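Protein 1 of 2
SEQ + STRUCT:
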Amino acid sequence: MADLGPELRALREGLRSEHAASTPPPSLRRDIARSRRTRAGLWSAAAAVGIVAIAASALPALLAQDEPDPAATAALPAIDPPVYVDATVSFDEATDWLDDPASAGPPQCGTPMPQSLAARDGFSATHEIPTAVTMQRDAYRTIVEASVTIRYGRYDEFPVIVDPMTGLVGRDGLVVGWLPPSAQRGVNIFVRGYPSTQTWDGLGGIAIACRQSPDQPATQLEPGDYEVAWMTRVHSSETANAKADLAQRGFAIPPTAVLAAYREGSYECERLQGWSGTVPITCDPGAVPGTEIDLDAGRVTFPYDEDALGREVDVTLVSQTVPLTIAPAPSDPRDVIEAQNPPHEPGEPMQCGDSYGALDGSDLRLSLTVPFDDLEFGSTTEVEAWVQGFDWTQAAVTLPATAPLWITQREQRRAALNDGGSYGYTLHEVVGRVEVTLPERIAIDRYEGPTSVTIDVSAVQWCDGPPSVSAAALTYSILAPHTVELDDEARTFELVRID
């Protein structure tokens, strides 16, 4: 069996040379062996291609049983199927700031403010931007609109990737922040003179300060005077266009930051079954025949339609700069509301009748396996334990043997705001208490999914009698200091919610 992979890869190459203009349909999938972490680093879809080869060899015999009329087929026009070629993309190359959850912002951060650019490499841009922009910090109601109309002046049809408009905020000649895009990246096939318009809608926009690393928390720019220019990147390369072609077939190459989660056989991949958006190709390498994923080398090879790439280009079109003023935030009634209803302090006991503006949480997530309305106090119930985040493969949770579980009732409220609108917020009022007996240690394997454990729940002690709302409208918080060990890292928390 050790030689099966090379044999199948050789079979694939032989099949490709004989049928260079054909490819199996992307809907063909192989059954995924749940080999999880014990499997070698190289994942190959050669087995799926081998199955296709067997099917292809049997096809002529099947067709011979019912041959069509030659006169009828002679009138049919010839259709050239797409020609597929291989692209090899490193996981690092597959990650950029627009789709990387660990991104610290656009690559222009900290560099000189770019000069305006309206034409290059056959592309021209007409920008429609305001003469000046005023934003109010924390107001989230700034109404700003900008657009760029891009034209291509050459005769060839040219498929490119068009990134959404993004504002670059500068001060003293350097990029110090950015205005997030309000649209998504798209694929555009340009023809001579045909326009494509990208828009930026600043309704609810904020100005984010540049960071030196993803570990720093994201903050807004301080009030003051700045300048802003909008950029739109138009680019075409084997990596970008092959990824776009792969996305049109429903698959994506995941960023390195989430690769540990989205691997063949993982719980997250199982949850994506039936998902209508793009699915990480690492969840099912055999879904696109010809795909090979080498985790040790950090790269993925997959076939794409060679017509998806005309030539390589990389142009960032930039508008003129205009003044940007960020005004101080207005006094907000929400500050008063939150001061009057502070969140629960981690580790502090709860008392009947107390209300909290928010309840702390944990990376540990406990979920009832039955509806809350079926929860029976004074009995044993089953919960599923899971740890949030994408940066772990093995987790262990250490809990106290017993802990109080406080039951809170959600109370929805609204308060008037300065601009005539209203602000909705939630209070959590303590209405009851239960004692629970917990497992002292829970082991969780990412590729196995949540771990089922049982907890003993005592009879409930209501503060002022049972509440009139459904049990599903209540919230359940266990005050239990616990440690979550993720691979080589440990984190401590004081409270865990049951959802």
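Protein 2 of 2
SEQ + STRUCT:
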Amino acid sequence: MRAVNILAFGVAAAGLAVAATGAPPSGKGGKGGDDSGPAYEVPTTVFVERQRRTPPRLVVAGNDSSKSQPVYQYENYAAYLHDAVLVSEGHGRALITDRSDNPLPMILVEFWFDTDGKITDTNHVPLVSRPDWGCEALSSDGTRALYYDRDASEVRVIDLADGDITTLVVSDPSQSFGSSCDYKSDDPLNLNGVLHAVVRDSSGARIDRIDMAAGSTSTVYGPTSADLRDFSIHYEGSNIALVAISEDYTIRFGSNFSQAGAAPVSIESGTEADFYCEGTRLLFKGRIRNKRYTLVYDTTTEGTATYDDDSEWTPRTLC
């Protein structure tokens, strides 16, 4: 059964128990969008939506961003979305921060939706508080949450089934992990996956590949003095099929990090890149006539379409 207890903030998250499978619970859902066409769409996107006179809210939507449905109401105007994952059919998870001053609470937001895409239930659980952030993410299977403890120079992982916290990576205090990271594991019972992360030190920024099973670290891009913002990986099975690198507010693509780093710019103004599940489209934040929009780029046609013009930073696809 899904536990709904709210945990006290702190370093430990003992007692957390969140079911990863099962049918969506019954409940009351929100209605979003205009009156034309279906009232709901099966969610493919998660983003922070601005509101008038009140803090923004976390919403989910399909291809039509106007049909958004709320899953969490932020208490603070400093509203952040770190990651979103589809855990199982009809069950999504998002990792957020809802405060600008210390300590910073990292919160897990869960939501369930039916076959029509209507939200049937939501839940949110504070996981841990920390003095800063970097490398906040959900594992590819949605069973674990990662966060960077800057004071301890450690990337830690929370098992969302039992709340156990484990140190995944211990780093040199002279370097820090950026906000973009990706943890892929084909062994959900053990921490034998691969972490890709933006790492910064005195030589600049780079992207490291940290293989837990092999106990090895290699740099797959950089170091560079450019503004390395973030990256996104599209997998086919366990293999990397496509990579997007956002640097100096431009985005480049390649079949691996080396190719993406050497490729010509495909998106002249873009950051916060994230692939849709099929890998042919990319969600990102871009600029049109000096205004920021959430946009979708098609890697096949190289065309760009506006998705939403009233969302905050860091939209995420539900994959």
